[in-house]
Amino acid sequence: MSTLQTQDADAVPQPLVVRTVAIDDPGTLLDLLPVDAPLAWVRRGDGLVGWGEVLRFEVTGPDRFRAAESRWHDALAHAVVRDEVDLPGTGPVAFASFAFDEGSPAGGVVIVPRVVVGRRGATTWMTTIDLGARIGTVPSLDAAVRDRTPVAAPGAVTFTDGAVPADRWPDVIARGVAAIRAGEVDKVVLARDVIAHTTHPLDPRWVLDRLGDDYPSCWTFSVDGLLGATPELLVRSEKGLVTSRVLAGTIRRTGDDHADLARAAILAHSSKDLEEHEYAVSSVADALAPFCSSTNVPDVPFVLHLPNVLHLASDVTGVLSSAHPGSDAALTGLAPSSLALAAALHPTAAVCGTPTPVARALIARLEGMERGRYAGPVGWFGADGDGEWGIALRCAEVDPDNARRIRLFAGCGIVAASDPASELAESEAKLEPMRHALASD
Ligand SMILES: C=C(O[C@H]1C=CC=C(C(=O)O)[C@@H]1O)C(=O)O
After folding, report:
1. 325: CA distance to ligand 1 center in Å?
2. Would the keyword Isomerase be found if you checked this record's keyword annotation (predicted)?
3. Which residues of the chain have pLDDT under 70?
4. What was the ipTM of the complex prediction?
5. Boundaries of every domain in the chain
6. Measuring from atom 10 of ligand 1, which residue has the nearest CA?
7. N or C, which terminus of the chain has less Cβ within 10 Å?
8. What is the pTM of this model?
């Protein structure tokens, strides 16, 4: 496991100096972002945006979540914090995203921004984070965003095959179905990628603005070149309450509202989709149970309507028990952080399969693609460990060496009754948000 941070490792670590103040309504959060390395976690206009980099930790391997958490604790150990708002997302905040696979070179990255602007309902705030300085006055937001360059369109976009060409992907699915019918696994989630080539280097804000407008019920995120709008919340942990929005089971929308209502009814009664969904819900409920004194797992999913697809969805909730046997929390008396919960939940059967270890091995054998940070946890956490982590879906990764090259991802849950051609069509529907967000019209 390796970690890396922007501070000189041999130097005496300087304390973080953090100040949060209430500010007047700054308008749309995403509109505040700079072109370089924007950070975002926004849904329905609420959430956090950030920029600048006070600290950066890079982690790899099976221990990547724990390593990230311990670096964050170290950074906070001597922090000087003045928080005049005291809400989730105020005070010290770090954004992070992690690879799906423990062996992935993508590992994970934690970024502590210089400036965070947040909104929760009618309350808006700004946090400034620095190293080693004394708490001073907070610069005005106007000063912080004065020299923003206008958002630029990417120009014409062409798409080429990713690791597995689209016309060969149904074979991959067929092999997954065969493995299920042979009794190897109950469910496996298989994914593909597509490469977008833009005329101009991508301005991430172009994509984020469009995703935020088109998919307001999703969590629009941006962390270190990974951009997307995910409908799936891996876990939110806030003052002892945990929530997870589990999705699995999908049908494409037609564009005709009347026809889509009929499709919603078909989805809600599809035994293939209900089976796919049940595996995902169980994986989340089972992973949360050891941490919770009580959980609420809906018996029946609801249908989530997105502009491109309809999903079967279940909101699983729980109350954290402060100390479960055998845990760090049992020793410390502290509840697990949101990142510890995300680590315990990942990978759910919405992105991996059932049983998890066999599905993971099957993905490695069949998929023919390095997932990178696609399908991994992405989100933010604060000094008290509370935070929100989505599953990085409906997303794309900008090539760090070529901002005209962007990798888009989509995957599908496969069960015994899955049809390869239908799954290819479903993956196209899941690519639609990013394809559209990249278009210049
Ligand atoms: C793996 C993806 O979606 C998951 C989440 C919702 C529905 C899914 C499905 O119906 O297959 C997938 O489990 C993806 O969008 O890349």
Report:
1. 33
2. yes
3. 1-13, 133, 322-334
4. 0.99
5. 16-145, 157-203+233-438
6. 249
7. C
8. 0.95
